[in-house]
Amino acid sequence: MGRLQGIICLLSILVLINDATCSRNDEQRLRFDKNTGQFRILQVADMHYANGNKTPCEDVLPEQFPFCSDLNTTLFIERMIHAEKPDLIVFTGDNIYGPDTADPVASMNAAFAPAVSSNIPWAAVLGNHDQESTLSRQDVMKHIVGMKHTLSRLNPFGVDVIDGFGNYNLQVQGTEGSDSVSVLNLYFLDSGDYSTVSSIPGYGWIKPSQQFWFQETSMKLQKNSKAPALAYFHIPLPEYSSFDVSNFTGVKQEGIGSASVNSGFFTTLVEAGDVKAVFTGHDHINDFCGELNGISLCYGGGFGYHAYGKAGWSRRARVVVAALENKLNGSWGTVESIKTYKRVDDEDLTVIDNQVLWIKTP
Amino acid sequence: MGRLQGIICLLSILVLINDATCSRNDEQRLRFDKNTGQFRILQVADMHYANGNKTPCEDVLPEQFPFCSDLNTTLFIERMIHAEKPDLIVFTGDNIYGPDTADPVASMNAAFAPAVSSNIPWAAVLGNHDQESTLSRQDVMKHIVGMKHTLSRLNPFGVDVIDGFGNYNLQVQGTEGSDSVSVLNLYFLDSGDYSTVSSIPGYGWIKPSQQFWFQETSMKLQKNSKAPALAYFHIPLPEYSSFDVSNFTGVKQEGIGSASVNSGFFTTLVEAGDVKAVFTGHDHINDFCGELNGISLCYGGGFGYHAYGKAGWSRRARVVVAALENKLNGSWGTVESIKTYKRVDDEDLTVIDNQVLWIKTP
């Protein structure tokens, strides 16, 4: 890290912005592609990885079962990376399935191996199952943060009090040679595991400390630019229940597994104004995107073969493509559109459910 | 303030706890009564004060109308103070009605005059109408904070970023001579006025910054003692819609005027665990208390005569009585019950709707 960059990083820390470049090499700085003007994100939701070839698949067709294991999950990631050549891979939790994991470190190493060996930057958040083995949530996240090519962080710099592990943000800069202002912002949050409040049953939620950090960070980022943003975490917000076939793209085949209470993060997102789409996992056989108050609420769709699913309904992954404006003089402008589609794990990795999530208004 | 107290105050500020005693005289320290073991709070909701005898009443019977003005509001407070002799008076917003106020300072001075002249400590929060004259919310709250005998604060010490004005907490100590640990905690919050987000219509809400302050403060207070707490603010939470005649005490004669979004404060309250009851105003002809997840959600009931109401349905005020345990040796223990009732503005200030909000479990 150069001296100037060091000073910028120190200043970033002082203003509570977790600049992804601060302890990273230049090669890991996130940038839009100079040829296509695109930044492509592959979301991998709910791998539920356990012990590799010893771990059987769940909810596959009878003829698939005898030859199906965690290695099918690995193969699916490898094929997705080859097909998409994403600029970033995001794992949205339940990356490993704690209860069936003999060694959580070995499981994580195997689960993330295709990302690591691809040399593509990757980021992860925690689900509700990642800590259900011998490592705490903190230790699971610590292991992830120490892995190769990851931009994951344990928590933001300069923030003393924050709930959970794996709350951080990343900034995506324009194409090579453009100035260093972020043109796309990414937020990653720990949506918890289970309620620890006896009178509240069910799953965890995003707490005031995290929302306060998000709000402060968003406000500071928006002082510099009006870049759109995306948010990734595991457990869907209660507002995912707002949709049905009349107003979403994709399918809803099970109930919304949000917390049983509303912790207000959707309101906080709407008020902040920069986040245009939220991507979660958790509900493996829901894969829709619906729009509410200008924010698309999307599922990744179940990816992992050791996760529950629906036999005959292919495992799948979501891709997001942010595209820069192609200016008349041939240069690239700011982000003009954010689109998404999914690919299902069939022979052709068939693309389905193309949709536009956001278009810049003049 | 003594030197030791000064040091304690400085320490309180450093740990973000707004100790009510820090810039107050000992006479204004809140304490339980040594004879009764009680601490009694009078809530005055929605005075809607304007220009005294020049301001007519709303929604009173035709025979009341010719002789009815803001002075009826003043008289009602004076009678309530005389009848109840409360240890604290809490004004839960819409203290003045901005649009009809010729001079907001004069209106506030007149509205709070009975509290000031009673020599009883009082606290106030803002509603959605207080700033609808020539003073901003900040300036309205600044004026209140400067008034005599008030324990109101502009905002907590040591907190750099917090939304709104009039977020603070007060600690009520045991009877005279007991140690200085708080046995009852009171939180006051600014629930805002109107949404400033174009896609969200309606009223304001309690923001992440306020919830984070509340959560931090609650956690620190609970390190010292397991004292129960009460929260006062203006706009009811969306969870007030959870009740009907089958599970509340009082009446519901209009819709719940909460924000159109859920900002999660109820979840935050449940998680914190110390707040046993919430008291709001805003909806003048609702006056119920209902319990959800161990927290009573209560309305004060409309108090002011220049506020909308219901002709023939008396203006009213809520009283809360917290009582210490009477130990076998004659000394007072910690708080063992929190009860409430209302008085209506008839000849006898008739007591109605007695109910128990919280009982200490052994």
Relevant terms:
homodimer, 362 residues, alpha/beta, Purple Acid Phosphatase, chain A, domain 2, 7-stranded mixed β-sheet, 21% helix
What is the structural class of chain A? alpha/beta
Mean of residue pLDDT values of chain A: 93
Query: Radius of gyration of chain A, Cα only, in angstroms?
Result: 19 Å
CATH fourth-tier homologous superfamily of chain A: Metallo-dependent phosphatases
Q: Which topology of chain A does CATH recognise? A: Purple Acid Phosphatase, chain A, domain 2
Taken from the alpha-carbon principal axes, the silhouette of chain A is globular
> What can be said about the biggest beta sheet of chain A?
7 strands, mixed
End-to-end CA span of chain A: 38 Å
Helix content range of chain A: 10-25%
Number of strands of chain A: 13
Largest interface: A-B, 28 and 28 residues
Biggest β-sheet: strands ordered side by side in the sheet of chain A: 4-5-6-8-10-9-7
Multimer state: homodimer
CATH architecture of chain A: 4-Layer Sandwich
Strand content of chain A: 15-25%
Count of domains of chain A = 1
CATH class of chain A, named Alpha Beta
SSE arrangement of chain A, N to C = HEHEHEHEEHEEHEEEEEE
Pfam families (chains A, B): Metallophos
Family (chains A, B): Belongs to the metallophosphoesterase superfamily. Purple acid phosphatase family.
Main location (chains A, B): secreted
GO molecular function, one term (chains A, B): metal ion binding
A few lines on this structure:
Chain A has 362 residues and is of the alpha/beta class. The first copy, chain A, has one domain (25-359): Metallo-dependent phosphatases (Purple Acid Phosphatase, chain A, domain 2, 4-Layer Sandwich), CATH 3.60.21.10.
